[in-house]
Specification:
By secondary structure, the chain is of the alpha+beta class. It is 34% helix and 25% strand.
Length: 588
Amino acid sequence: MASAPSHAGVRLLDPHTINQIAAGEVVERPASVVKELVENALDAGARRITIELLQSGTELIRVTDDGTGMSRDDAIACLERHATSKIRTVEDLGRIGSLGFRGEALPSIASVSRFQLSSGQGDGSRTVLDVHGGRRAEPHHEAGPKGTTISVEDLFYNTPARLKFLKTMGTELAQISEIVGKYAISTPDVAFRLIHGEQTLLDSPGDGDALSAVAAVWGRDVARGIAEIDVFREGIRVRGYISAPHFTRPTRSQQWIFVNGRPVKNRGLYTAIDVAYRQITPERRFPVALLMIDLDPASVDMNVSPTKSECRFSQEGRVFDAVRQGIKGALMEHGMMPNMDGIIRANEAIAASNAQPRISDELVAWSTAIDPGFAVAHSDSHDDEPVIFRSFADRFLAGLRVIGQTADAFFIIAENDEGIMVIDQHVAHERVLFERIRNARGAGGVERQPLLTPMTLDLDRAQATIVNERLEEFLGMGFELEPFGDQAFIVRAAPAAMRGADPITVLKELIDEILDGAGPSGLSVREQIWVMCSCKMAIKAGDRLGMAEMEKLLIDLARTENPYLCPHGRPITISMGKSELMRRFKRA
């Protein structure tokens, strides 16, 4: 039972408590610390920034830059709450040109870590400040070059409850890699180096070439597959890179947007990208987009949240139109808009691939043991007496006859003794594969198909980290992978259920979804991986199937534990009983 509230009176909180409250808003995870420290380095004019990590930043984050550095007085002042060199008055909030400006980050970080700042404005002497849990020691001096080094050790050591909310080490490292990658791309004239333990995760050249930075962060394949965009419309400049309509991703993980140099998330801008690509990209696919939007700082509000990751525009419609028209113009300029001949050729290629057999024409006899439980269904006879069936499978398969496909091969039409059924073929196969993967984990693993020629899976650092962390799960799903260098893997076998799909494409999309956290909620990480994998391997809406393939799929569906919903929670089957049919046609 909660104790009665205290009535000790209103009092001012001490600075340490205030900083810890602010830390709850500013320092959510190790990536938040890296973001704030990198922004400070960029604001200080750094041309080389090195980020060193241990244990995905929980044990150590050290950011070293060659910027202007700080004097002794500035170094001491920067650890005071709301002390900043970026703004002077409230009017300055309407024209923010720097990345940092709130003056909360350093004291907040220092309040939840063992913190050290070392800074100097010229080669020689540096001011060193040590802060443990918000308590600052007397400053001292050491020799060192111009610039600043900030070390953050044992993050959240004095707030252990915060540690419980962190994700896995791989996920936290991926978040840091993304933050550093964004700034490496948006400031290509700055060299970034990200080191985790003894491994270099990112090393951008800082040569001013944006494509060199993209290649360092996203890989050469992406850099070769994107086209430049640079337009100016009504005082708004939109520049960056976009991909062709066929070069897409299953999530928005490679849609990065910057406003006046700051990475932001804005639903309206994501919608502008979607509208520009509407009807020329597949449904639920996202093109690669790297957009840098420059406009008058007075027309954008960056002071929306403590993390400065969101923004508002005074004229959002103008920004929306500039992005949409800029992308469409660039697509046409680079010959990326599909023409009728291209569409016809694509459709012919799809039809040819769909004509290839996917499932053996020989049906596997249904001989599974009947569930001892009973289910009650109402008969269609006029006396409406209940009829006892022994299981869903028994009811589903009684008198089963496949009629064919409809709605451009999205659905299978079938009938049984109870009536007519419409089955979503993709989600039905998802359910079958999900349970097959899950059940096979304890019975020797999923059936594999060796590749005639081993294939190379090239990944960026964040992707490779996820694979290494979840290698056993990938093996259990039927992929035979072995490391090949720092961020590449040899693929020697793939799940037999993939039916000829490109294993490299499936693996990359699966890894992207894991990184983006796109799996269904309410499941363990392992189950989410199984769900994603089953979705990638399942037959697609629109795939043409033979009668034997459709019948085999429905038999397999009847044998699942949950034939009603796919692993994502979507319905699999809609049915209409014979009595309902009779009533609809006024025959009953």
